Amino acid sequence: MQSVTLKDKTFIPYITSDKILESVKEIAGRINFELVNDKPIFLVVLNGSFMFAADLLKEVTIECEISFIKLASYHGTSSTGTVTEMIGLTEEIKGRNVVIVEDIVDTGITLEKLVNLLTKKEVKKIKVASFLLKPEAYKKDIKVDYVGIEIPNAFVVGYGLDYDGLGRNMKEIFVLK
User: Fold this and answer.
1) Which of 6, 40, 97, 169 meets the CB 3.0–4.6 Å disulfide criterion with 125?
2) Contact 80, 37 (CB under 8 A)
3) What is the domain extent for residue 42?
4) What would the mean pLDDT of 105-124 be, rounded to a whole number?
């Protein structure tokens, strides 16, 4: 892996594709064991979670459904502090077991908004699967049930994560230099 430049910023190699896929398989194994009788609906938070969700759900062997919601909370390299719902949930989820699929949980603002939305829709159970977690930045009390990799409070791109729309397609994760 070599460093990459996106717009005006340089990013250096951080997490290899092999490590990513190893972590995804570990999460899927736990989900397959713990939710075997739950028939969950996986609610994938777009855009960033698309690569994680695709890899994760290829490894999930239990009966399940998949849906998508698009929320936005970032501008450039920092969180805006507000969350905008851009594409909403259309499935009936009352009484269902839901697994939120996130690319990264940092402050927890997006996660909190989504959990509140799901609670209002009277879901049975909510679980959270996030590929990355920034424990230093996380400010909420919502449990993240399945975490791929914990990272420091640094800005990362690749594997679905972007910098102003760029870098999502990289199969590795890079950190701001």
Assistant:
1) 97
2) no
3) 18-150
4) 92
80: pLDDT confidence band, cut at 50, 70 and 90?
Answer: low
pLDDT value of residue 86: 55
Task: Write the DSSP symbol of residue 122.
Answer: T
* Antiparallel, parallel or unpaired: β 173-176 and 9-15: antiparallel
Residue at 161 is within a domain: no
48 domain residue, yes or no: yes
| Contact indicator for 101, 44 with CB cutoff of 8 Å | yes
Q: Annotate 56-88 with DSSP letters as a single string.
A: HHHH--SS-EEEEEEEEEEETTEEEEEEEEEE-
If DSSP codes are grouped into helix, strand and coil, which group holds residue 141? Answer: coil
Selecting among 38, 55, 106, 162, the annotated active-site residue is: 106
Q: Angle at the Cα of 54 (from 118 to 166), degrees rounded to 5? A: 95
Give the burial class of 166: count Cβ atoms within 10 A of its Cβ; 0-12 exposed, 13-18 middle, 19 or more buried.
Answer: middle
